[in-house]
Every structure is written in C-alpha cells, then in structure tokens.
Amino acid sequence: MYSTLSKQLAKKIETGFITYMELFNTYTRLAPKYFSEKAWHATHLNNKQRLRLYKDLLFPLAKECTEMLEDKAADSDSWMQVKSEYHILIANRPDLELAETFFNSVIRKVYPKLTIDEDLMFVMEGFDSCTVRESEELLRTYPSFLGLEKNVRQILDDFDFGAPFMDKEQDIKFLIASVKKVILTRYRVAPETKTQILKSVFYRNKAAYLIGRTFLGHKWMPFIIPVLHGEKGVFVDTLIFDPNLMSSMFSFTRSYFMVEAEVPSQVVGFLLSVIPHKKIHELYNAIGFNKHGKTLFYRDFLHHMDASEDQFEVAAGIKGMVMTVFTLPSLNIVFKLIKDHFEPPKTMTRQEVRSKYKLVSLHDRVGRMADTHEFEYFKIPIGRISPDLMIELRKTTNSLLKVTDTHLIIKHLYTERRMEPLNIFLEHCSTEEGMKATEDYGRAILQLAQANIFPGDMMTKNFGLTRQKRVIFYDYDEIEFLTDMNFRVKPKAETYEQIYAPEPWYSIAKNDVFPEDFKRWMIGRKDIKEHFLSYHQDLFDPNYWQGIQHRITTGELIHAFPYPDEIRFRPQEKI
C-alpha cells in the first residue's frame, strides 16, 4: 500500500472516531436537561440512541474503508501501516484508549474473518493507565476545617440539578445525621480529612448520583448521594456508604450511566478508588464505553490464559435447548454459543435468538439481567479444550467452529459473568438461604415486569446468583415485552368432559399466560415452596400483572431503585 493511502485511511478512521465521540457526548449532555424537565421517556430514548450510535457509525465507515482498500482489505502489511499512521494521529488525545478500540472495531469489520491480531490491532500494548489526578477540572474538594454542616450545604449548592429543591434544609439534616451515625461514631476528623466529589454527575433512569470519597482514619471512605426529582422538586434520597451496595449500583446487571468524562481514564481511576472490587473493564462499561470495556475484558482474558493451565469444559447445570454453554473453571465467565438446531418445542431461528440478546443490550436491565459481550472469530488454544467439550461443540454448534492445528476458532459467541444456577443452589442450600434466594427470585421477575420484560421461561435453571446472592436472569431466547402478553384467569372446569379432558378444553393463544399455573412448577422444595407461595402471592394473580401492564401502557416509566427502600430518607416519596 502506498503511504498516501495509509494516511488517508488512518485519517478517515480518526475522523469517524471524532464524530462518534462528539455525538456520544451530545447524547450524554442531554441527560441533565431531561432530568431537570422530568422527561423520562426522552431519557429512555436518549439512552437507546447512544447505545446504537457505535454501530450506526461503524458500518458505513467500514464500507468506505473497504472501498478505499479495494483488493487489500485482507493485506496485513497494509493494515500495519494504517495502524502506525493512526497511532500518530491519536497519540495526544485525552481519550486515547477509546480511539484505539475504535480502530480495532473498524479493522474487524473490514478485514474478512480476522481473529484478534496483536500486530494489526491495539490489544496488549494499548493504553491502560487509570490514575487519579486530583485536579480542579475533575474533582470538587471540601476541607474538614469548614465543618460538617458547611460542607454538606456547600455540596448541595455546588451541584445544579436544574430544578428547585423540595426541602434543601431537610436534606442537609438527613445527610448530617447519616454521616454522624455511620462515620463519626467510628472515626475522628483530623486536619488532613477532606471530601472529594466528582464534578460530573452520573445520570440513570430517574436518578442523578454524586460519587465521592472522604479521607478519614488514614483511608478513603467512598459514598454515593442519589438525588431524585419528585412531584414537589429535587430531593436527596439517601446517603450510601455500604461498599456492597455501591458495587451493585455499578453492576454488570444494570444499564450504563450517562456521565460526562472528558478524560475517561481519570473518571474510571476515581471510580476504581471508590469501588476497588470492580475490574477496570466493568467501570468503562458502567459509564457507557462498553466497546472499550470489551477490549479490556479480552486483555484480561489473555492475561488469565497465560497465567492458568486448566481446560475449558461444559458448564455445570441443565443443558439448554438453544445455547451451548462452556466455561474455564479458573475464570468467572461463561461462553455461550447458539446451537445449530434447537430441541423441541423451540421453533425460533438463530437470528431471532440474536435479536433477543440485542433487545437486552438496549433495554433497561434494572439490575436483573446480565450484560454480555458479543465476539466474532474468538480463538482459544486447542490444547485448552477438554475432549468432552469438543464433542459437545461438534455435536451442537459445528457450523460455528473452525479448527486449526493450534486453535479452535468460534465464529460467534457471547461472554457473560458466571453465576451459580439457582436450581443448583436450591439443591444444597439451607432452608433459610433458600427462602431468601426464592424471595429475590420472585422480586427479580416482578422488577423485570415493571421494566416491560416478561422472561418467558421462568424456570429456576434460567436464573443465577451473583457473589452477593442477588438473583439474575440470564436466558433470553423467550423474553417478550410484557405489554405483548395476555394475562388470563384460568377457566374453571364445570362438566365431566372438561374435568377429565387430556388437553386444555379452552382456547389458548400464543401470548396467553395463566399466572395461577406458576404455582405448580416454580419451586420444588417442600420446605421452601409454601413460604415462596405466601411471600409472592402477586406473582400468581393475573390482575396484578395486568396492573403493571396498565401502568406501562398509560405512559409510566417505573423506576427501579438500586438500593433497598429501608435506607431511603423519605421512603414514601414518589417520583
């Protein structure tokens, strides 16, 4: 390739990335406006548009690059020159790491059947620094000598939510009382004590969040302040210090935040200091840069492969009728492939399954559905594939496989956090543990319903438990919008023929659902079942489901609180 063409291609890709970032930031900057206006439907649409943006720009750009390259689309030497020129163009960008990932996305779309290639892509050598610079551009700092009340008051004055506070003085009292109860009963304020809060506000659904930390007791203590916009104005909903709750708010089961990040690595660096148990790729996902999160996930995967020796094997649990799932015992990830042929009664196509996963990626996951990364031409050293797994893959997904002397190449798969299947957990847990888990199982189904998602197949094998024992749904091939379902009362048999009919004697349409029938199969353990049926009576009431449908169809967007009601300052306040 001539040097001129290399430079032209590099410049075109850089221009595409700049366009992407400008539009990404445009969508992000709409979040505070919509919050101030309580424009919740606009918020929902804005989030979807930002999620679609990457591919909407990538595909036409890849087409242009393919046309420019003509017969050199799969020429490695040509791409190495383009990469070198591109690296020069982006070297001084504050979002360098995102620019590198964007290049990777382009080459994967242009270069036919390309697996991850460290020579042609930014893989292991990519930018990976996430240090916190305590600059005024990034943080607001509040020194201890001002006193608790002045600092709390100043914090609420410094952040403009575009609407008047409902009762700022009461908010200040709530915050002061919470700090005194949780923090000042255990630690003493010292001269070096200070509080820092990210200047950028985090928006998601109907809430805005301030993310901060206080240096106290020779360590940083993180906190989150959720702010809601209710019927009477803006108000502080609670003050969160619990690291498990904070981690859950940035979980792989939740939608991405809308937050301005001029230097993304610094925002992620601050978040890492606040939520240290999260991996860096999870934090990039959480602030909307999920494509770069995917790059970092893969980088972690390669590091793990170098540091481990175990073999990939078929995942534990009941085998699915639609997906073949395998895992690496030393890694908390599962790999999911759509089968070549589905077992009865499944009648859908592979593309229909992919569309369900796409639906989940664009929808509000309300902390109850697992995020996934989608890969094409994913390669694994052949020696790391167990014989039993190879047999299973050949039997169920052979069309997706390419085997070389050194690697197994999988044409398409999803990766997802590994969780313990709920059905397996219920086989060995105590009665008390089972009661808690099944309570959350029911809550998960109802919270999905409030987000307009009907799981379809609600068997416990399709739900898993996170490290914190939170129940998550992860089998998406039968999900539907709740508003498309017809919840019915089951007709009562009256005649002899009806009572003893081998098949239902009444008509059943495709989307008819009889919640009363859930009782028969949802929970099998006798020591747990009665408690579950009593605790979640609403699950079996068609009127309850219809009530949720009515709220959705009449325009209500039901907010999913990522923390329990009992810690809210005003638990009865509506938004």
Compact summary:
Helices cover 43% and strands 16% of the residues. The chain is built from 18 helices and 19 strands. The protein is globular.
What are the SSEs and their pairings?
Elements lengths: L2 H35 L2 H30 L6 H15 L5 H15 L28 E5 L4 H11 L9 H15 L11 E5 L3 E3 L2 E10 L2 E12 L2 E4 L6 H7 L14 H11 L5 H7 L3 H18 L5 E2 L8 E5 L5 E6 L11 H13 L9 E10 L5 H11 L3 E3 L3 E11 L2 E2 H7 L2 H20 L2 E2 L8 E3 L5 E3 L6 E2 L4 E2 L8 H4 L12 E2 L4 H4 L4 H10 L6 H12 L22
Helix pairs in contact: 1-2, 1-3, 2-4, 3-4, 5-6, 9-10, 14-17
Pfam families: AceK_kinase, AceK_regulatory
GO molecular function, one term: phosphoprotein phosphatase activity
Keywords: ATP-binding, Cytoplasm, Glyoxylate bypass, Hydrolase, Kinase, Nucleotide-binding, Protein phosphatase, Serine/threonine-protein kinase, Transferase, Tricarboxylic acid cycle
Task: Describe this protein's structure.
By secondary structure, this protein is of the alpha+beta class. The protein has four domains: 1-110; 139-288, no CATH class; 308-418, no CATH class; 422-554. It has 18 helices and 19 strands. Strands 1, 2, 3, 4, 5 and 6 form a six-stranded antiparallel β-sheet that branches. Strands 7, 8, 9, 10, 11 and 12 form a six-stranded antiparallel β-sheet that branches. Helix 2 packs across helix 4, helix 9 (280-286) packs antiparallel against helix 10 and helix 14 (431-450) packs parallel to helix 17. The chain is globular, with a radius of gyration of 26 Å. Residues 10-308 form the Isocitrate dehydrogenase kinase/phosphatase (AceK) regulatory domain.
